[in-house]
Structure formats: structure tokens, C-alpha cells
Amino acid sequence: MNKKLIPVILAGTTLLSACNNATDTTSTQAAATPTVTIAKEDAVAVVNGTYISKASLAVLESEIAQRSQGQILPKEQLIEELVQRELLVQDAKQKQLDKTAEFSERLETIKTSLLSQASIQNYLKSNPITDAILKAEYDKNVSASGEEYKARHILVKTEDEAKAIIVELDKGADFSELAKTKSTGPSGPQGGDLGWFAAGQMVAPFSEAVIALENNKYTKTPVQTQFGWHVILREDSRAQTPPPFEAVKEQIRPQLQRQKMQEFLDSLRQQAKVEIFAAPVVEQAPAATADQEVEVEIVDVEITDITDSSKETAEPAADASLEIKPEVIEAVEKTKDDVAKTIDKAVDSAQATTEEVTKTVTDKAESTNKAISESVDKTADKASETLDALTK
Asked: What's the CATH class of domain 146-239?
């Protein structure tokens, strides 16, 4: 009966991932190579006289559940996995694979990884991230989120146009209707509505003008930005509502753990005597020659509106034109032009090389064919002469 091994792989981990995975890795080692004497009543199977413990089965079952997000496999399948592992271990020992230099090096690597993880786990256990620490971080960086504003704007190309709109507003014109007919911004069809936004989401002159306004007041002088001239109506303002502490505290924990680990590593480094002998030499790839294929990949750059993912609101998003600075767009376009020019040069070079090679091959073939033809003619003439002589 053929049964496949369950894909549970022991691999080296980095220091940061070890914060969460050190226990799993250790348990995998324990499950694969039990070192204690096992009684028959505490075993789930025996392989050539070697007992496999119930504890090993429990560890593997827990490990599989964690790695497969709670999926539970039949115990018979898990036991078969342990049996196959034991068969492989016994085969390796019989062939003395555990005595090879390669095995010793790999074992030392695993030992180093486990010890570094043990150090991390010990430090985090001795210096836990308590709810009080999490709350302090939450109060410092999350709850004190400042104000946000709700505003409309009318965007036009010239200052005179903006001044004329302000005159109409002073006469009682409706801001939303003017925005629909005169604004060149993407929010114009929505009456210039920008929804709720934090000051930092908008370019500085626009944000400063909004902050300086009172609710339900519009700017009496046009506001210039790199996008044009704005007339701005501040409709409302409010304190930003942060997500509750319990909803985000586990998102804060990993960051604080990383900070603690960095502080721990810095302290170890300061106390240690470390000498770096030489920086690793990075070999540069050889430059492509004319007859090598040149492949250039164009990466499309997409500019997206970055918003606060912790806030869910049915309000319309802020005008994207205010958040994408011209220098960003210019840099993207320049990058695309540079890439296009590089591709054109590569194509021209490749075509020129192909034409040159084709011409060389053609000339060589023609020369060879001519030589062969002359040689054949001479041979035929000689054969003819010889035949004539024999006939006479």
C-alpha cells in the first residue's frame, strides 16, 4: 500500500519569524527524533523494535492543525507519517549517513537556529509585551489622531476665473451647482465634494486654507496649488474616531516585539567584541554583447489613493487630483520614456547584429558554393579528358 508523506518540512527560519515559530520548530524535532525511552503502553506503533510515542503523535497532530489553519487529519494518516519518518531515520543510520561531514554541518546549522530561537523566546518571555504597554502605544499613536475635515472645492485654471466664482458666491450662488458647471477637477460632477479627509492627505496650501476656515465658510481669495486655482468651502470638521483598543492591540504587538528584539540585539552587540574581516565581494554580471538577446521588462506604475484602512465610511473619497503631486507624475512619465528608449536601442542593436550575421553567413555560403562548383567543374573536365584518352 503506497501512502504519501505529509508535507511537514523543517526549515531554517529568520530571527524575526522565530518569534512566532520557535516552538513549532522545536516540536518538529522532538516528533521526528524522540530521545527518551518509550514503554509499549505509551506507544502508537513500533518499527523494527523502536516505539513511536503517543506524545509524538499529539505533537504532530497539533503541528498539522497550526500549519493547515485548524484542519484535522485522520490519526491513521498521522501515524503512517511517523512510521515513514522512523523508517527513513533507521535507513539513514544503517547507512551511517549521520556520520558524514554534510550531516554534521547541517546538524550544526539546525542547532544554531534552535539556539538563536531559544534566546529570543527566553528574552520575550522575560520581557513580555503587556496590555499596559500596548495601551500606552495605542494612546500615543492611534487614539490621538487629530481632526479631519469635510469640504468642497471648485478647481479652475486661472486666478481670474476663481475670483469671478467668488463674486458669484458672494451674490448668493450655490457652491455645489457652480462646482458642477465650472470645476475642472474630478469631483466637479459631485458638486466638488471631497468627503472627509485628514489635513495630511491634501497638498499643503489646500490643507492650510481648509484649517484656517470656519465651518460653512468659503475662501475669499483663490488658493493656488500645482493643480490650478481653488475656491474651497469647509462644510464640517470633527475629531477622528480611532478604532477601539481591543480591535487593534494584536496588530500593535508585532511592532513592539520587533522593537524589543532590536534593543536586545543592540545591547548584545555593544557588550560583544566583534571584528569584521572583509566585506563580501559582489560579483557583477558581465555586460551583454551585441549578439546576446536583450530582454527589457516594462513595469507599469500605478498611482493609487492611499487611505486609512481602519476607517470605514460611506463618504466619497477625497479628490485624487489633490493627492497625486505633479513631480510624481512627471517622474513616472520620464521613467517610462527612459525605458522605451532603452528598448528601442536594444531592438536596433539586435536588428543590426542580425543583419550583420546574416550577411556574413550569406557571403560565406556563396563563397563556399562557388569554390565547390569550380572544384566540381575541374574534376568533371579531368574525368572527361581521361575518358577521351582511354577511348582513343
From this structure: alpha beta
What one-letter code names the amino acid at 135? K
Length of the chain: 392
Using the CB atoms, write b or e for 17-34: b if 16+ within 10 Å: ebbebbebbebbebbbeb
pTM summary value: 0.41
Instruction: Give 191-227 pLDDT, tens digit per residue.
Output: 999 999 888 789 999 999 999 999 999 999 999 999 9
> Buried b vs exposed e over 76-112: b needs ≥16 C-beta within 10 Å?
eebbbbbbebbeebeeeeeeeeeeeeeeeeeeeeeee
Buried b (16+ CB within 10 A) or exposed e, 300-338: eeeeeeeeeeeeeeeeebbbebbbbeeeeeeeeeeeeee
* Domain residue ranges of the chain, discontinuous segments joined by +: 15-126, 146-239, 325-392
Tens digit of each residue's pLDDT (9 = 90 or more) over 75-122: 999 999 999 999 999 999 999 999 999 999 999 999 999 999 999 999
Task: Calculate mean pLDDT across residues 301-328.
Answer: 40
